Amino acid sequence: MTTKKHTLAAGMVAVLALGACTDPTSLSTNADPNKNTKTGAIAGAILGAGVGAIANDSNPALGALAGAAIGAAGGGLIGNQLDKQAAELRQELANDGISIINTGDRLVVTVPNDITFDTDSYTVRPALQSDLRKVATHLVRYPRSNVQVIGHTDSDGDAAYNQGLSERRANAVADILQSGGVTYDRISTIGMGENNPIASNLTPEGKAQNRRVEIVIIPK
């Protein structure tokens, strides 16, 4: 019975959070400039409701409401910060080859390998080093975040070789971020090789999309 009360309380608060933070007209379009702030608030409210209900065993409904309020406030702040960071990065980089996506809880800056490295190389081209230093300067301005640098390849060639190349390219990008002032403890590097494609490896266009380095900015 207690479990049902906890679940019901959390579910009720989640519905309330959804109703309060979303505009039905914005769900069918991307026109809402505060969409990611609202997304963060909703996620924070749902998480906070669950934690609050568990923490307040004597009154799970009250605990859920309190947790939801705190979670929504924190999630909204994160979403708002990411909206601001994404806008600043787009203006600062002004590079059509680099994409910046705000998922609501993190920023994903994607740099295609074709404009970053020569074929079969992990030395960052001079033209891209200036853009990466701008990213580093941005990260220094926003110190309350962790950074993942993730290397990817297409499926051409030996899988083990591709894995190593993705790791070396991720490390090369991370080195430039560190030289730009981002502290070592904030950065982790990951080589995915050919294991996480975002497009088909059966076409040249798809392979080009899969060859990339992602800089993932995750607020603390």
UniProtKB/TrEMBL annotation:
Q: Which InterPro entries match?
A: Bact_OuterMem_StrucFunc, Gly-zipper, OMP_bac, OmpA-like, OmpA-like_sf
**Domain of life the protein comes from:** Bacteria
Chain ranges of the OmpA-like domain: 104-220
Q: Which GO terms describe its cellular component?
A: cell outer membrane
Identify one Pfam family in the record: Gly-zipper_Omp
UniProt keyword terms in alphabetical order: Cell outer membrane, Membrane, Signal
Q: Where is the signal peptide?
A: 1-31
**Localization (cell):** Cell outer membrane
UniProt cross-references to PANTHER family, sorted A to Z: LIPOPROTEIN YIAD-RELATED, STATOR ELEMENT OF FLAGELLAR MOTOR COMPLEX
Name-wise, this protein is: Outer membrane protein OmpA
Origin species = Ruegeria marina
